[in-house]
Amino acid sequence: MEVIEASAKRKNEKVITIKLALNEECVIDSAEALGDFFAVNPEVLEEMLRSLAGARAVDVKWREFLKDMARVSGLYGVSRETLDSLAIKLAKEVSRACREDAATK
Amino acid sequence: MRLIIGEGTPFFNMAMDEAMLLLRGINAIEDTLRLYVMKPSAVTIGYFQSLSQSVSLEYVRKQGIPVVRRISGGGSVYHDSLGEVTYAVILSADLVPNDYLESFKLICEGVVRAARCLNCEASFAPLNDVVAHGRKLSGSAQARKLGALLQHGTFMYATDIDTLANTLRVSRVKYGGASTIRKRVITVSECAGRRVSREEAIEALIEGFAEALNVEFIRDKYSPAELELAKSLEWKYRSREWTALRP
Question: The whole model's pTM is what?
Answer without folding.
Answer: 0.94
